[in-house]
Design a protein that fits this description.
Largest sheet: 4 strands, antiparallel
Order of helices and strands: HEEEEEEEEE
Mean pLDDT: 89
Strand content: over 45%
Low-confidence stretches: none
Shape: globular
Strand order of the largest sheet: 1-2-3-8
Number of strands: 9
Helix content: under 10%
Structural class: mainly beta
Radius of gyration: 15 Å
């Protein structure tokens, strides 16, 4: 998901639906499980993951937010873009089946991009 500065200037609050099992970003293959909300103002962004489908809960979240469209990683002597959630700078990897998670990121400016990824499990899933 990317949010451009024109959208943010008109509405600093953005909400996007989140899906589980939507391989290749094909939501017809997935189940809507919640939403991610971004509030961006005066260089500070707050991103909140919220599960609204009572059959699911969060076990991990990964967040990239910055001025480049994608986060960058070092590959040999080259710096290349990546969409691998494990490379995102903000991560909560040991959530205990929670329904919300939140990040506040400051020192931002201008046009920003956000990639929000979460791992969910079914609440009634047998471990």
């Amino acid at each position: 998901m990317s949010i451009n500065i024109a959208q943010i200037n008109l509405n600093p609050l953005q909400t996007k639906k989140t899906w589980a099992g939507a391989g290749q970003c094909d939501i017809t293959k997935g189940v809507e499980v919640g939403r991610v909300t971004l509030f961006y103002s005066a260089g500070v962004a707050t991103v909140t993951y919220q599960i609204t489908n009572g059959d699911y809960a969060l076990t991990e979240t990964h967040l990239y937010i910055g001025n480049d469209m994608y986060p960058l990683q070092q590959r040999g002597q080259n710096t290349v873009p990546t969409v691998a959630p494990g490379q995102y700078p903000f991560q909560n990897g040991n959530l205990d089946k929670v329904l919300t998670d939140s990040y506040t990121v400051d020192s931002l400016s201008g046009h920003i991009y956000i990639i929000a990824h979460g791992v969910v499990c079914e609440i009634n899933q047998v471990d």
